[in-house]
Design goal:
Layout (H helix, E strand, L loop, with lengths): L7 H6 L7 E5 L5 H10 L3 E6 L2 H13 L6 E5 L4 H5 L4 E9 L1 H8 L6 E8 L4 H10 L2 E10 L2 E9 L3 E3 L3 H6 L3 H4 L2 H17 L6 H16 L6 E3 L1
Parallel strand pairs: 1-2, 1-4, 2-3, 4-5
Antiparallel strand pairs: 5-7, 6-7, 8-9
């Protein structure tokens, strides 16, 4: 899916309902909580970052926007602060990170979180693996192309969506809209071609088995199916 006349931030916030509570993990400049308050009318937002400098810049941006009462900025590692204080969150946004980093954040999941809105800049199979471990469900998945850069968006829910069950779910995704997306199909074909070229050069058995499995899943469409909870 190509983003035309729309930013990734705009796309992400389409999934946010008004009068909710949102936390942006790795908030950087604080743009997500600011825009969530301004355009989606969330009742309260948090911006969290491990590093002081981006959090300080976020604080300046929040003050400039006149939203200091609506947005709390917290220096914390991932979800640590929120989990320790058992803060109820309708949405946790994790964007602009690689899948491995996002997976580590989701490993801190707790029952007070209702939804995750995730935008990864690398293949999200480590995220799906973590969702499987945490019994979290994938409501929707999108493959986004923004100025020729590739991103994976996942709306993850605690109560509705599809479970990651099979290897195909893990490596290719569970959402039929994702699997039918032309840009994503093209990506899978190109990735398969790359793995075919690499296969004769690979000596590590596990890596070789992964390449063979991926090629087989894409070319033959083997699928043991995912399960949906509503």
């Amino acid at each position: 899916m190509r983003l035309i006349n729309q930013t990734r931030l705009d796309f992400l916030l389409e999934f946010v309902e008004p009068a909710t509570i949102l936390a942006d993990i790795g908030t950087d400049h604080g743009y997500v909580p600011i825009e969530a308050i301004k355009s989606k009318q969330v009742s309260h937002a948090y911006g969290a970052d491990l590093n002081f400098n981006p959090l300080n810049q976020a604080r300046k941006n929040v003050e400039k926007a006149g939203l200091s009462a609506e947005i709390d900025l917290i220096q914390t590692d991932g979800l640590t602060y929120f989990k320790e204080h058992n803060i109820r969150l309708d949405y946790v946004v994790i964007a602009g990170l690689g899948a491995q980093s996002i997976s580590k954040i989701i490993a801190q999941d707790y029952l007070g979180i209702n939804n995750y809105l995730i935008c990864a800049n690398t293949d999200p199979w480590p995220i799906r693996e973590q969702l499987q471990l945490k019994n979290l469900l994938i409501n929707q998945e999108f493959f986004l192309v923004d100025q020729d850069q590739k991103y994976w968006f996942l709306w993850v829910s605690r109560i509705s969506g599809r479970k990651v069950v099979s290897k195909r779910d893990l490596y290719l995704g569970v959402d039929k809209h994702l699997l039918n997306d032309r840009d994503y199909q093209e990506f899978l074909v190109l990735t398969t071609a790359k793995y075919k070229k690499l296969l004769p050069l690979v000596h590590h058995q596990k890596q070789k088995q992964f390449y063979e499995l991926f090629i087989n899943m894409v070319e033959k469409g083997e699928n043991h199916g995912s399960t949906e909870n509503n």
